């Protein structure tokens, strides 16, 4: 067995070991991207992988670039305003390779600490998260918050959860009916509710908890935050994709008594549509995932897949601002979805009658 001199770099050994493990890449130009913390090198490196290196690569931390060919980790996260064991954050890790997004690993996080840890993991990766990253420009200006995204996110965080809730409530009750909760351009295009909404689906609290963690993490958010270019996060909204597939049919419910056969049938129809290749028309790639995602009556697992699809699509549009609409408001943020890139937002920004 050929061995390497001790003077050879450990990175070079890992690269050659990768060829040994993945012979399809032999005799082709490639680059491996490694995180900062590598497994401890053995005393005598060889062209066959030791256990630590194989485990390291199997965890998906290394990304292969081979003559333009790339394997990318893509994460879809269904968010909640107060994670718990009963209602956790749901994360689906996928890999994106050769025009196919493939589901790999499903995780449930009962606290925000696990979300924060995920944001800090070494890249390159892209993540789609289901909560509004921003508030409407109209609200920000009316309430006299700082006129930059990161500044008003930090200001909201400084109020604390109770103070933030009070600020939104006081703003709402002081205004006339019909002009109390405003929507962003992207909310109007997606037919989603105002990010000021505190009740029902409390997306305002999701913004409060999620956005401040994005700022602190140092990730890059296209058009909003220049951070680590290898850790990318985009705003996802599975509702806009679900409606495109099954129309206005409901497909999920957290209440056990309301988890009907009709909802299950809608989830099966949606997932079957995606896996049969129909989504390739709008997204430009195929999806591979287990049908068992439809078994989750809360819909969180299926939503995580939809978030991953929107994130993967944004990655394919990385040379065009990750698919951001041409009129995207840098104060508000935007939802990553191919239909929203071209749909004009030319209606009133007030009101909140549309359901998520």
Give a description of the structure.
By secondary structure, the chain is α/β, with parallel strands linked by helices. The chain has two domains: 10-69, no CATH class; 76-356, no CATH class. Helices cover 37% and strands 15% of the residues. It has 13 helices and ten strands. It has helices at residues 10-21, 51-58, 112-120, 137-142, 149-158, 160-173, 185-190, 203-217, 238-246, 261-275, 280-283, 300-316, 338-342; strands spanning 30-33, 63-66, 69-70, 72-78, 89-97, 100-109, 125-129, 219-220, 228-235, 286-288. Strand 2 (63-66) and strand 3 (69-70) form a beta hairpin. Helix 5 crosses helix 8 and helix 9 packs across helix 12 (300-316). The longest helix has 17 residues, at 300-316. The termini are far apart. The model is unreliable at 1-69 and 344-356 (pLDDT under 50).
Mean pLDDT: 83
* Beta-strand residue fraction: 15-25%
Number of individual domains:
2
Shape: globular
Give the strand order of the largest sheet, numbering strands 1, 2, ... along the chain. Answer: 8-9-7-4-5-6-10
The helix content is: 25-40%
Uncertain regions spanning at least 5 consecutive residues: 1-69, 344-356
Largest beta-sheet details: 7 strands, mixed
> What is the number of beta strands?
10
Rounded to the nearest angstrom, the distance between the terminal CA atoms is 60 Å
How many separate helices? Answer: 13
Structure at a glance:
With 356 residues, the protein is of the alpha/beta class.
List the helices and strands and how they pair.
Blueprint: H1 10-21, E1 30-33, H2 51-58, E2 63-66, E3 69-70, E4 72-78, E5 89-97, E6 100-109, H3 112-120, E7 125-129, H4 137-142, H5 149-158, H6 160-173, H7 185-190, H8 203-217, E8 219-220, E9 228-235, H9 238-246, H10 261-275, H11 280-283, E10 286-288, H12 300-316, H13 338-342
Helix pairs in contact: 5-8, 9-12
